[in-house]
Amino acid sequence: MEVGTLDVRRYLRREMMPHLLCPGCGHGIVLQALLRAVASLELDPDRVAVVAGIGCSSRLAGYVDFCTLHATHGRAPAFATGLKLARPELTVIVITGDGDGLAIGGNHLIHAARRNIDLLCLLFNNAVYGMTGGQVAPTTPQGSRATTAPLGNPEPPFDACRLMIAAGATFVARGLAYEPLTLQHLCMEGLRHPGFAFIDVLTDCPEFFGRYNRLGRGPEMLLSQKRRTTAVGPLLAQKAALDGAEVATTPALPTGVLHRETRPEFARVLLAQQREGFP
Amino acid sequence: MSEPRLLPGNEACALGALAAGCRFYAGYPITPSSEIAETMAELLPALGGVFVQMEDEIASLAACLGAALGGMKAMTATSGPGFSLMQEHIGFAAMAELPCVIVDVMRGGPSTGLPTLPSQADMQQARWGTHGDHSIIVLAPASVREVYDLTVRAFAYAERFRAPVIVLYDAVVGHLRERVELPEQAEVVPRPRPGGPSYRPYAAADGQVAPLAAFGDGYRFHVTGLAHDERGFPTQDPAAVAALQRRLQRKIEDHRGEIVRCEQVFMEDAEVAVVAFGIAARAAREAIRQARQQGVRVGLLRPLTLWPFPDEVLWATAARVRALVVAEMNLGQMLREVERAVRGRTEVVACLKADGEPLQPEEILQALEAEVPAWR
To answer: What SS3 class is residue A257?
Structure first.
């Protein structure tokens, strides 16, 4: 089957349309890449659960015809952990945003990564709080403007991938809304990975982040992703991170699979303990 | 009945949960509740259950709710500071109607307070701690055996009403060791499952609940903390929101008769009644015994259900006693409920203590002597 022509409309809850995303928002592209990955892997929709937090990206859970849990702000990894341990046979996908996953939910995210529980976590990273109207996020570049950083963001941002690698995630990648087919393949790899898989997806918010920082509309913002990133293999990415290479002020972000390792998966460890009991 | 054995309250809580069919526990260590987690960690794996220690109490209840959606009976336990953190997801459980049991072993507060010492100061938090209107069931055991029984019942209510249920007792009851015999079998209430091809997870008549399907059972549905329609999808339609709010309230309030329990001791001829729950009620029993030895007819009203509060019993009792003495280990949390319930029908006297020590029978006796006209 040609993956580029997969029709993913069967996975959408059409009665929920129209959706609430703004014109030019990249979230729809990211969602389509995820759905194409689900289609390509021929996953049974009855056995797919999407657990989301709060924010624009998390609202996507309501639009997809799977088992969907729109949880509380930042807590999706904790809900997903309970669900996955109760039903290890389900494919559990966490949808979160940069504010949801890295600010209020940072603790849950790093502990899910540390446990290496078998989830795919997609972090829709648009560098801003979109749903609440454009406040500064832990991913907003230093100096960029937001409604709560009118003089420019005084804080440095997180690099979500480096954070996840340090926390113990066994599959870490960065993808772009600008490159939906590559993103689809990253999602497929993440879904197949038997452990905690994390993808930092750069998407765009023209309505707030773009407007406040005069970055243009959707197309211009997507094009800029290409300028700000370099596709690299894991070894090169590691090197770039170590060197702090490229242009010192705005280092190009590496994209692609940045880290992969094999460690025992948490739900399986618990199952083995159930069988073997106490020594 | 099993062989009698010496058991602490917290262990009885864990055993009650397991007997009721709980196979998922997520928690975070906190005094004076940690023995519940430790017992579950020891016993769950052999039963095919899951124990997980989460990163905090917010995540603990979140994991329980995720497991509940996976079809499991789930429990978490904590104390004051952790109970504060859990309020977010008590609200989510109430809104999304996910069954679970939350145990709060009360210690002195506010804040870190008195980690190892008892209090009864979470009574109102258990009712109103999370934002927004909702109704909730809170059970208050006073002995080790009753901790077991009410934990079992908490699971029955959680399934019956598709709601979070709170078991509330203090550090003394949690750590108290008593000789108990446990029943061979506990009441296990299976989760009602939907039938038929179509499923609307929130379609129920007013005051009722819909069955809850598990994720993975073939029904694809949406669960959200947003106000939602009968399908579970977000809505701001005033009529749909009003219906949801009313149903979340009435599904519990309409069944007060089924839920509310209040023990009455020596109430047949009582001129005065002490109102007390949990450990304070045990001190009250002794105070009443001593009062009766002195010829004063005192009785005891002991709510086993703190929420819904036994308004009906209080109102009826108020018509025939000269005074109600509310004895509790806080600064008047049940007092206001008693005053609300009796609406001035009789005198309401307070016997309050909030110093980290359990109420003593002498203190209740003194309150009776000093305050109650019937005594003089």
So the answer is: strand
- Please determine, for the modelled complex, whether the ipTM score is greater than 0.90: yes
In A, residues 92-121, which contact B (CB 8 Å cutoff)?
A: 107-108, 111
Least confident of B166-180, B187-201, B209-223: B187-201
Which of the residue ranges A141-145, A245-249, B65-69, B288-292 would you say has the lowest mean pLDDT? A245-249
Instruction: Say whether residue B222 is in contact with chain A using an 8 A CB cutoff.
Output: yes
Percent above pLDDT 70 for chain B? 99
Q: Does B200 touch chain A (CB under 8 A)?
A: no
Select the residue of A46, A70, A108 nearest B224 (Cβ to Cβ): A70
Q: Is residue A52 within 8 angstroms of chain B, CB to CB?
A: no
User: Does residue A255 come out as left (phi exceeding 0), alpha (psi in the -120 to 50 range) or beta?
Assistant: beta
Among A82, A37, A81, residue whose Cα is nearest residue A180: A37
**What would the DSSP string read from start to end of B47-82?**
GT-EEEE-SSHHHHHHHHHHHHHTT--EEEEE-HHH
Give the model confidence (pLDDT) of B127-140 as tens digits: 999 999 999 999 99
With an 8 Å Cβ cutoff, is B59 touching chain A?
yes
A15, A66, A108 member nearest B59 (Cβ): A108
Contact A46 B216 (CB under 8 A): yes
**Which residues in chain A touch residue B70, judged by CB atoms under 8 angstroms apart?**
82-83, 85-87, 90
Tell me the C-alpha distance between A124 and B57, whole Å: 26
**With an 8 Å Cβ cutoff, are B216 and A67 in contact?**
yes
Comparing C-alpha atoms, which of B126, B113, B112, B109 is closest to residue B169? B126
Strands in chain A per DSSP E:
48-52, 67-70, 91-97, 120-125, 128-129, 135-136, 171-176, 197-202, 229-231, 253-260
Strands (E), A98-252: 120-125, 128-129, 135-136, 171-176, 197-202, 229-231
A66–B220 CB contact, under 8 Å: yes
Asked if the C-beta of B69 comes within 8 angstroms of chain A's C-beta atoms, the answer is yes
Task: Report the SS3 class of residue B150.
Answer: helix
**B92 vs A86: CB contact, 8 Å cut-off?**
no
In order of A46, B111, B132, B163, B209, the CA distances from B98 in angstroms are 20, 28, 17, 5, 11
- Residue B72 contacts A where some CB pair is shorter than 8 Å: yes
Q: Does the pLDDT value for residue A233 go beyond 70?
A: no
For the cut 80, the answer to whether the pLDDT of residue A271 exceeds it is yes
pLDDT tens digits, B318-328: 999 999 999 99
Average pLDDT over residues A80-96: 98
Instruction: Say what the pTM is.
Output: 0.96
**Whether the predicted pLDDT of A94 surpasses 50:** yes
Interface A:B, Cβ pairs < 8 A: 141
